[in-house]
Amino acid sequence: MMKSTKENKKRSGSFESFRRLIDFAKEEKPWFLRSGLFSILNKIFDIAPEILIGVAIDVVVSKETSFVARFGVIEPWHQILVLAVLTFFVWVFESIFEYLHLISWRGLAQVIQHKLRTKAYAHLQSLDLGYFENQSTGNLVAVLNDDINQLERFLDGGMNEVVQTATAAVGVGAVFFYLSPEIAWLAITPIPIIVVGAFYFQKRAEPLYAKVRDQVGVLASRLNNNISGILTIKSFTGEEIESTKMELDSLDYVKINSKAISVSSAFTPIIRLGVLSGFLATLVYGGWKVLHGSLNIGAYGVLIFLTQRLLWPMTRLATTVDLYERAMASTRRVLDLMNIYPAILSGPLHVQKIRGHYRFEHVTFGYESGPVILQDLQLEILPQKTTALVGLTGSGKSTIIKLLSRYYEVTQGNIYLDGNPLQDYNLKALRKRIGLVSQDVFLFHGTIRENLCFHDETIQEDQLVRACVLAEAHDFILTLDKGYDTVVGERGQKLSGGQRQRLSIARAILKDPDVLILDEATSAVDNETEAAIQRSIAKISKNRTTVVVAHRLSTITEADHIYVLDHGKIVESGKHRDLLESNHIYAKLWNVQTGGKAMTSNHEIFRNQS
Ligand code: ATP
Ligand code: MG
């Protein structure tokens, strides 16, 4: 079977996701450290005023024997003035570092989200066509947008929160142990309980948030599908049904999110109880010590204020862990996407030009996990000639065409191009030399000019006009209100099918490819468009290897070689005239299409032959 796109299926935990994120952002390590330093300094200056209050109480109570007096300032009034100056600077520095850590973390969040988004997108683009066929567009958009924004929110404020809580614990703990080790032990006992609680909560929340993110993807893909398919929904008056489906998906999101919220909310009261016990212990035991003369009043004041400083920020831990879990669930989705690698790898052969001599040798092919589509195919496409493929719908014509640019790998056999195995070619170099007008023309939301020149910014106005004249698109473009600058709407929906097709041909001409491939749209275009397309093909296929898939045989009567396909096999081949003379399948198809035997269907012709 075909080698499938490699995918790392293992779902990693949030710590693992965090480690992978740090690894991804390792170039920003200095920035991380700098931001962390600003957070730490801000926190130190933030808790300093509480210490200064205690010192001030100590000054008015102990006067000449106070803590400050030890530094040589004996006069109590002078001690107060010294404290005032210190307080002033503490506040100034606190504000400065507040500003610095805010812009530093936010700046870092911007850099990382930008880098992650652009890298994830570039990686996504490198994946095989087969990968995209198995994905929902909405979900991929959700990964590249919502998930990365979720991470951005955590980096904006959450990282600072973590660093500052840790700083407060260490800093305040140190002061506590300096002032009274016994009270310190009592005050910090709740911390391990809180930390264990945080881990427990985090473990329970992790799978819930993974589900929340997946449901975001489900919602996004439904929205994407429905908005793109609005015409179908309206024409089948399916608005109510789709609204109900949307509502159910949204309800699922609410349910999963509510579960996560209830787990996260239960955590805060537990923390508050821990905080309260630490605070009460300090208040009661510290008070008892002051009353018995074994603790100074200033130190008691500092301890009371600092327990608040140490413990209350921990109540915010629940919110931070919540933000962290959501962010890591998202990060995992983005990094997992970047862990998928294309199975079709580029070869070493960099070519500036190809002749376009293709040889299929015993090629068998099936799409991933699907049935065999092409069986033991022997086929040759000659350089500078026009080769046509005809056959019933589903017989494998478009599949052959996709193999020519190696969008898929053959299951068995080999395709040679100009004598070399197709796998030897550098993929980009190869695809640069092939122009494909596919069956379902895709136009981007933008102007006609942007759509035609997006692959090459050096295209000049006269080249553009020449290509459009050749594709017989120039005249209709001029009738549009803004000519070449008319916006075509998403997928080109403001244009008619035939107009889109002509633009697609113009786009291929501008590429000036060595091999031109035209997969004719099944939907019938009017006679005038058909004739126009035929004339363009005749002109542009001159001295160029051209492969045409034709539904209307009248477009390929001049082809140098015609292959007739049935169920992935070639059942007939030759020139138009020879095929007519042999009076086999092709001749019968021709008769049907030209009105000779109007009652016979295509299917009957093929069935009668097999
Ligand atoms: P048409 O004339 O309708 O364009 P075709 O000859 O171009 O038909 P293909 O598009 O090559 O037919 O499809 C051949 C078979 O391969 C069909 O049975 C189709 O269902 C299947 N097929 C096509 N594309 C895929 C895909 N991406 N994944 C799985 N199966 C596919
Ligand atoms: Mg097709």
Would you write up a description of this structure?
The chain is of the alpha/beta class. The chain is 62% helix and 10% strand. The chain has 21 helices and ten strands. The strands form two sheets. It has a six-stranded mixed beta sheet with strand order 6-7-8-3-9-10, with helices on both faces. The chain has a four-stranded antiparallel beta sheet with strand order 2-1-4-5, covered by helices on one side. A hairpin with a 2-residue loop joins strand 4 (412-417) and strand 5. Helix 1 packs across helix 11 (317-337), helix 2 packs antiparallel against helix 3 (76-126) and helix 3 (76-126) packs antiparallel against helix 5. The longest helix is centred in the middle third of the chain and has 53 residues, at 239-291. The chain is elongated. The model is unreliable at 1-10 (pLDDT under 50). It binds adenosine-5'-triphosphate and magnesium ion. Adenosine-5'-triphosphate binds next to helix 12.
Keywords:
4-stranded antiparallel sheet, 6-stranded mixed sheet, binds adenosine-5'-triphosphate, alpha/beta, 21 helices
Overall pLDDT, averaged?
88
Distance between the termini: 28 Å
The tally of beta strands, per DSSP, is 10
Strand content: 5-15%
- Name the strands of the widest sheet in spatial order: 6-7-8-3-9-10
Helix content: 55-70%
Structural class: alpha/beta
Low-confidence stretches: 1-10
What is the overall shape?
A: elongated
Ligands bound to this protein structure: adenosine-5'-triphosphate, magnesium ion
Describe the sheet with the most strands: 6 strands, mixed
Radius of gyration: 36 Å
Number of helices: 21
